[in-house]
């Protein structure tokens, strides 16, 4: 895919992009699944990152027992996982995230949040950590979508909420499944490899561009816009 000629919006995933929350999510998934006799290593949890809770539970359940997990079990595990996650320290903002968001905003671009998370605590913390960046009408969360990533729906909805089309936006993602969703939505996708995965899985998922961290993307951003002749709009 080519970088948008008329860039108007930047769609940000949340966990592992804006917050360094993935180590806690992976640990919480592992702990709670084991409690119910389901085997999901921390490492594998990173590969499922971005899926809905139901999707992740069904994959692990299905390969052990075949078929889909009973709805009550899904509900129990997801509730326990959320509780477990909330016991960990508050995730910190990803280094470089705030500075990148400020550049995006100052450049007159629309920042949009697109997350599969329904974790109230993190959603609340968004406005606290990144004040004045995301307006509620430019946020897509677990409460908005029917199909989670890797389905393109969350990103298509992000475009719609921003009032832009696919070739007027870029996505910033850290998870293979999130990259798949963005690519399926027809959006130029920048991957940031902020976790333990081999960077190749992000490229195989279809990422157009890859950075080793949010800090690296933040530092490269002015040059990236310049290379594609995008003039930051003056406020
Ligand atoms: Ca993520």
Description:
The protein is an alpha/beta fold and 235 residues long. The chain has two domains: 9-21 and 91-227, HAD superfamily/HAD-like (Rossmann fold, 3-Layer(aba) Sandwich); 22-86, Orthogonal Bundle (DNA polymerase, domain 1). The protein has helices at residues 22-35, 42-48, 53-65, 71-87, 97-106, 120-129, 153-162, 176-184, 199-204, 214-227, and strands at 9-12, 110-114, 139-140, 169-173, 188-192, 209-211. A six-stranded parallel sheet has the order 3-2-1-4-5-6. α6 links the parallel β2 (110-114) and β3 (139-140). The structure holds calcium ion. Calcium ion binds at residues 13, 15-17, 49-50, 174-175, 178.
Keywords:
10 helices; DNA polymerase, domain 1; 2 domains; alpha/beta; 47% helix; 235 residues; Rossmann fold; single chain; globular; binds calcium ion
């Amino acid at each position: 895919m080519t970088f948008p000629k008329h860039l108007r919006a930047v769609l940000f995933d949340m966990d592992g992009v804006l917050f360094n929350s993935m180590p806690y999510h992976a640990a919480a998934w592992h702990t709670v699944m084991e409690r119910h006799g389901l085997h999901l290593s921390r490492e594998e949890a990173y590969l499922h990152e971005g899926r809905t809770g139901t999707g992740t539970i069904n994959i692990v359940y299905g390969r052990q027992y075949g078929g889909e997990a009973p709805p009550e079990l899904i509900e129990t595990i997801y509730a326990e996982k959320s509780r477990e996650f909330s016991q960990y320290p508050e995730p910190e903002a990803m280094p470089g995230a705030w500075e990148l968001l400020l550049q995006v905003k100052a450049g007159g671009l629309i920042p949009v949040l697109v997350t599969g998370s329904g974790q109230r605590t993190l959603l609340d913390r968004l406005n606290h950590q990144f004040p004045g960046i995301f307006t509620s009408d430019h946020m897509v969360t677990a409460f908005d979508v029917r199909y989670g990533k890797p389905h393109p729906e969350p990103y298509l909805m992000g475009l719609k909420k921003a009032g832009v089309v696919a070739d007027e936006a870029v996505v910033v993602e850290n998870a293979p499944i999130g990259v798949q969703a963005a690519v399926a939505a027809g959006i130029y996708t920048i991957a940031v490899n902020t976790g333990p995965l081999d960077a190749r899985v992000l490229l195989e998922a279809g990422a157009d561009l890859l950075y080793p961290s949010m800090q690296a993307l933040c530092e490269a951003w002015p040059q990236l816009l310049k290379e594609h002749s995008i003039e930051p709009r003056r406020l």
